[in-house]
């Protein structure tokens, strides 16, 4: 928003803001407002003056407490608490926003976090969840140049916030920013009715997508879309997808088909086979019943093997045979995150000119692109909807590998 260059009156009116303080301000050095409710504005005349912007969605009452799924410490049972505190609008920091969550997907990463599977520990106590959609109901005072406004329907991703100024942020590796905040891991996530997020990183949701259907694009979708982007493939190439029947995998099948790739889906069980075939997989290999997985994958892919393998299996077994079945010059994209050795043999990696590429979620731009492809009807999250109180059972089913596609929780009715 540009400011007048001369002394005069500024009327600020931001859409949907209830208690906007529209004030007449004379740009004089002596002007002052109470510091807790003021916004500093530098002017072209080097004066600094202040206006107050209280930013809560019109007519919306933020409750003092909420229902949230809390894990007190790694390995502890999940508790659904109804009296969990909600950060109030006045307590939000500049750049923070309060999102009223309607839906959230449940990712295997949430289960890794709950179980303490990873060498980087999560916060304690932990509210997991990083595939959330909701409405912005408050924005922190003194927030500068927010790209979103009150009332916007936005998504919350794994990467909750980053500085946007460091070398990693500038080079498109926002997720590797030293100041990165991770939803449901280092900051509270979306398994609660209200979550504090960050105006620069929440993702606007296209109007044509309903919230339940959009939620899992914010992690499973963007991650597989980005993984395929770095897979070094082109139209007509083969891609193998170990983990194809899971939350990430079933979206990988669809993004791959949308990109003109041929897909050999690898997973197990009749339900997942039916799902991936219905989504366009060209070939199927069941990793549990196959007697020779490498031979079966090669047979399905012109005898030469796939040009890339994008592994979304949450177990190391999804990785171990990839170097063997990949085509010469192929790319192994690591997405699934077991804390384990993946058995890449240096001799065969070199001898077959294999590229091994780690792929970690996606940038803000990747998320927008992944959502746009879904909005165009080319990718659809296949999910069963449950409620927040069902989360414990969902974790058990995920652990047992019983979930084909995704589970999306309705957190609040909106
Ligand atoms: O940024 C990232 N790289 C990122 C983002 C989001 C999630 C990574 N992840 C990671 C998660 O932390 C997890 O380790 O991706 C992995 C998969 O997450 P998910 O899709 O949410 O999990 P899921 O729904 O349980 O699906 C996993 C599938 O893998 C299959 C299972 O049957 C299941 O369908 N699978 C397994 I376990 N072993 C397999 C194998 N050897 C296998 N499929 C083929 N071969």
Can you give a write-up of this model?
With 414 residues, this protein is of the alpha/beta class. The protein folds into two domains: 55-217 and 383-410, Alpha-Beta Complex (Quinone Oxidoreductase, Chain A, domain 1), CATH 3.90.180.10; 220-358, Rossmann fold (3-Layer(aba) Sandwich). The chain has eleven helices and 19 strands. It has helices spanning 108-115, 167-170, 211-215, 220-229, 247-258, 270-278, 293-300, 322-325, 346-351, 364-375, 391-399, and strands at residues 39-42, 48-51, 65-71, 78-85, 96-105, 132-139, 153-156, 159-161, 181-182, 194-198, 203-204, 238-242, 262-267, 283-286, 308-311, 331-334, 355-358, 383-387, 406-410. Strands 5, 6, 7, 10, 11, 18 and 19 form a seven-stranded mixed β-sheet that branches. Strands 14-13-12-15-16-17 form a six-stranded parallel β-sheet, sandwiched between helices. The two termini are 31 Å apart. Residues 1-52 have low confidence and may be disordered. The structure holds nicotinamide-8-iodo-adenine-dinucleotide (8ID). Nicotinamide-8-iodo-adenine-dinucleotide binds at residues 107-109, 112, 219, 223, 242-243, 245-249, 266-268, 272, 287, 312-315, 317-318, 335-337, 359-361, 398, 401, 403.
């Amino acid at each position: 928003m540009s400011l007048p260059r001369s002394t005069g009156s500024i009327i600020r009116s931001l859409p949907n803001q209830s208690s906007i303080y529209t004030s007449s301000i004379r740009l004089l050095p002596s002007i002052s407002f109470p510091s807790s409710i003021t916004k500093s504005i530098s002017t072209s005349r080097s004066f600094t003056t202040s206006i107050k912007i209280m930013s809560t969605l019109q007519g919306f009452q933020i409750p003092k407490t909420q229902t949230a799924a809390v894990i007190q410490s790694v390995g502890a049972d999940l508790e659904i608490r109804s009296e969990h505190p909600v950060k109030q609008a006045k307590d939000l920091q500049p750049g923070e926003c309060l999102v009223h969550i309607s839906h959230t997907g449940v990712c295997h990463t949430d289960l890794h976090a709950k179980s303490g599977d990873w060498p980087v520990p999560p916060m304690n106590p932990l509210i997991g969840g990083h595939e959330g959609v909701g409405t912005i109901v408050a924005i922190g005072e003194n927030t500068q140049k927010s790209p979103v406004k009150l009332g916007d329907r936005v998504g919350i991703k794994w990467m909750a916030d980053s500085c946007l100024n460091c070398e990693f942020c500038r080079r498109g590796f926002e997720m590797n920013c030293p100041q990165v905040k991770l939803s449901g891991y280092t900051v509270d996530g979306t398994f609660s009715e209200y979550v504090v997020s960050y105006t620069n990183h929440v993702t606007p949701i296209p109007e044509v997508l309903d919230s339940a259907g959009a939620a899992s694009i914010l992690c499973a979708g963007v991650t597989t879309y980005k993984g395929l982007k770095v897979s070094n493939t082109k139209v007509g190439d083969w891609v193998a997808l170990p983990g194809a029947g899971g939350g990430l995998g079933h979206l990988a099948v669809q993004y791959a088909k949308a990109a003109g790739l041929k897909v050999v889906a690898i997973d197990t069980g009749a339900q997942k086979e039916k799902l991936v075939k219905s989504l366009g997989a060209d070939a199927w290999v069941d990793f549990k019943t196959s007697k020779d997985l490498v031979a079966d994958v090669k047979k399905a892919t012109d005898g030469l093997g796939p040009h890339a393998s994008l592994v979304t299996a949450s177990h190391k077994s999804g990785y171990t045979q990839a170097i063997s079945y990949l085509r010469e010059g192929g790319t192994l994209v690591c997405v699934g995150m077991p804390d384990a050795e993946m058995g890449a043999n240096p001799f065969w990696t070199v001898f077959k000119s294999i590229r091994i590429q780690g792929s970690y979620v996606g940038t803000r731009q990747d998320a927008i692109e992944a959502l746009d492809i879904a909005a165009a009807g080319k990718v659809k999250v296949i999910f069963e909807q449950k409620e927040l109180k069902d989360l414990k059972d969902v974790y058990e089913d995920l652990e047992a590998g019983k979930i084909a596609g995704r589970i999306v929780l309705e957190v609040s009715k909106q």
